[in-house]
Give the backbone structure.
Amino acid sequence: MKYQGQFKPKHPDKYIGNPTNIMYRSGWELSVMFWCDKKDNVVAWCSEDIQVPYLCPTDNKIHRYFVDFLIKFKSGKIVLVELKPAYQCQKPVMKTKKPGRRFANQVFAYTKNQAKWKAAKQFAESKGWEFTVWTEHTLNELNIARVGKYAKAI
Protein backbone atom coordinates (compact mmCIF):
# COMPACT_ATOMS: atom_id res chain seq x y z
CA MET A 1 0.00 0.00 0.00
CA LYS A 2 1.28 3.46 -0.91
CA TYR A 3 1.72 5.90 1.99
CA GLN A 4 2.19 9.12 0.06
CA GLY A 5 -0.34 11.52 -1.26
CA GLN A 6 -2.55 14.50 -0.65
CA PHE A 7 -4.70 14.86 2.45
CA LYS A 8 -8.12 16.48 2.12
CA PRO A 9 -9.32 17.72 5.52
CA LYS A 10 -12.97 17.70 6.54
CA HIS A 11 -12.25 20.84 8.59
CA PRO A 12 -10.06 22.98 6.31
CA ASP A 13 -10.57 25.99 8.60
CA LYS A 14 -8.33 24.26 11.19
CA TYR A 15 -5.40 24.05 8.80
CA ILE A 16 -2.80 26.80 8.93
CA GLY A 17 -1.87 27.41 5.31
CA ASN A 18 -3.33 26.11 2.09
CA PRO A 19 -5.72 23.24 2.94
CA THR A 20 -5.80 22.13 -0.70
CA ASN A 21 -2.08 21.30 -0.71
CA ILE A 22 -1.47 19.10 2.34
CA MET A 23 0.95 16.30 1.49
CA TYR A 24 1.77 13.24 3.57
CA ARG A 25 4.84 11.05 3.14
CA SER A 26 4.00 8.17 5.47
CA GLY A 27 1.09 6.31 6.96
CA TRP A 28 1.96 7.81 10.33
CA GLU A 29 1.77 11.34 8.93
CA LEU A 30 -1.57 10.55 7.34
CA SER A 31 -2.90 9.16 10.62
CA VAL A 32 -1.79 12.27 12.54
CA MET A 33 -3.45 14.47 9.91
CA PHE A 34 -6.76 12.64 10.34
CA TRP A 35 -6.33 12.92 14.12
CA CYS A 36 -5.64 16.69 14.01
CA ASP A 37 -8.55 17.24 11.64
CA LYS A 38 -10.96 15.26 13.81
CA LYS A 39 -9.97 16.09 17.40
CA ASP A 40 -12.06 18.82 19.02
CA ASN A 41 -9.20 19.94 21.27
CA VAL A 42 -6.99 20.64 18.21
CA VAL A 43 -7.92 24.13 17.01
CA ALA A 44 -5.19 24.59 14.39
CA TRP A 45 -2.40 22.61 12.77
CA CYS A 46 0.00 22.54 9.86
CA SER A 47 2.37 20.05 8.31
CA GLU A 48 6.00 20.74 7.34
CA ASP A 49 5.46 24.50 7.30
CA ILE A 50 7.78 25.31 10.21
CA GLN A 51 11.43 25.38 9.25
CA VAL A 52 14.23 25.48 11.77
CA PRO A 53 17.86 26.20 10.85
CA TYR A 54 20.36 23.86 12.48
CA LEU A 55 24.08 23.20 12.39
CA CYS A 56 24.67 19.66 11.19
CA PRO A 57 27.68 18.14 12.97
CA THR A 58 28.32 15.70 10.13
CA ASP A 59 29.30 18.44 7.64
CA ASN A 60 29.47 21.51 9.91
CA LYS A 61 26.99 23.40 7.70
CA ILE A 62 23.70 25.12 8.37
CA HIS A 63 20.67 23.22 7.02
CA ARG A 64 16.89 23.69 7.19
CA TYR A 65 14.79 21.25 9.19
CA PHE A 66 11.07 21.07 8.36
CA VAL A 67 9.28 19.86 11.48
CA ASP A 68 6.50 17.37 10.69
CA PHE A 69 3.68 19.15 12.54
CA LEU A 70 2.70 22.22 14.47
CA ILE A 71 -0.40 21.54 16.58
CA LYS A 72 -2.31 24.19 18.53
CA PHE A 73 -4.66 22.92 21.22
CA LYS A 74 -7.79 24.51 22.65
CA SER A 75 -5.85 25.14 25.89
CA GLY A 76 -3.52 27.48 23.95
CA LYS A 77 -0.63 25.02 24.10
CA ILE A 78 1.37 24.81 20.85
CA VAL A 79 3.52 21.77 20.12
CA LEU A 80 5.99 21.03 17.34
CA VAL A 81 5.87 17.30 16.61
CA GLU A 82 8.36 15.11 14.77
CA LEU A 83 7.36 11.54 13.86
CA LYS A 84 10.08 8.89 14.04
CA PRO A 85 10.28 5.16 14.69
CA ALA A 86 11.40 4.47 18.27
CA TYR A 87 14.57 2.74 17.12
CA GLN A 88 15.73 5.99 15.45
CA CYS A 89 15.45 7.79 18.78
CA GLN A 90 17.97 5.47 20.43
CA LYS A 91 21.72 5.76 20.05
CA PRO A 92 22.85 2.96 17.71
CA VAL A 93 24.65 0.06 19.35
CA MET A 94 27.49 -1.67 17.55
CA LYS A 95 26.61 -5.36 17.46
CA THR A 96 29.76 -6.67 15.80
CA LYS A 97 33.46 -6.00 16.18
CA LYS A 98 33.59 -4.77 12.60
CA PRO A 99 30.79 -2.28 11.99
CA GLY A 100 29.59 -1.97 8.43
CA ARG A 101 27.87 0.63 6.30
CA ARG A 102 24.49 0.03 7.97
CA PHE A 103 25.86 0.94 11.40
CA ALA A 104 27.63 4.00 9.97
CA ASN A 105 24.34 5.15 8.38
CA GLN A 106 22.51 4.67 11.68
CA VAL A 107 25.12 6.74 13.54
CA PHE A 108 24.95 9.43 10.84
CA ALA A 109 21.12 9.60 11.01
CA TYR A 110 21.09 9.61 14.82
CA THR A 111 23.69 12.39 15.01
CA LYS A 112 21.83 14.49 12.45
CA ASN A 113 18.46 13.95 14.19
CA GLN A 114 19.91 14.95 17.57
CA ALA A 115 21.15 18.23 16.07
CA LYS A 116 17.76 18.88 14.42
CA TRP A 117 15.84 18.14 17.61
CA LYS A 118 18.10 20.31 19.76
CA ALA A 119 17.56 23.24 17.38
CA ALA A 120 13.80 22.58 17.21
CA LYS A 121 13.57 22.47 21.01
CA GLN A 122 15.40 25.80 21.32
CA PHE A 123 13.25 27.32 18.55
CA ALA A 124 10.03 26.14 20.20
CA GLU A 125 11.07 27.33 23.66
CA SER A 126 11.93 30.77 22.28
CA LYS A 127 8.27 31.08 21.21
CA GLY A 128 6.78 29.56 24.37
CA TRP A 129 5.98 26.32 22.53
CA GLU A 130 7.02 22.72 23.11
CA PHE A 131 8.88 20.30 20.88
CA THR A 132 8.40 16.55 21.06
CA VAL A 133 9.13 13.41 19.08
CA TRP A 134 6.24 11.00 18.63
CA THR A 135 7.04 7.35 17.98
CA GLU A 136 4.77 4.43 17.25
CA HIS A 137 4.38 4.11 21.03
CA THR A 138 3.08 7.68 21.29
CA LEU A 139 0.65 7.08 18.43
CA ASN A 140 -0.66 4.02 20.25
CA GLU A 141 -0.99 5.95 23.53
CA LEU A 142 -2.97 8.69 21.74
CA ASN A 143 -5.14 6.08 19.98
CA ILE A 144 -4.05 7.21 16.56
CA ALA A 145 -4.61 4.28 14.23
CA ARG A 146 -2.30 3.68 11.30
CA VAL A 147 -4.47 2.25 8.60
CA GLY A 148 -3.04 3.86 5.51
CA LYS A 149 -5.37 5.53 3.04
CA TYR A 150 -8.33 5.09 5.35
CA ALA A 151 -6.61 6.24 8.54
CA LYS A 152 -8.91 7.48 11.24
CA ALA A 153 -8.64 8.53 14.84
CA ILE A 154 -10.14 5.98 17.16
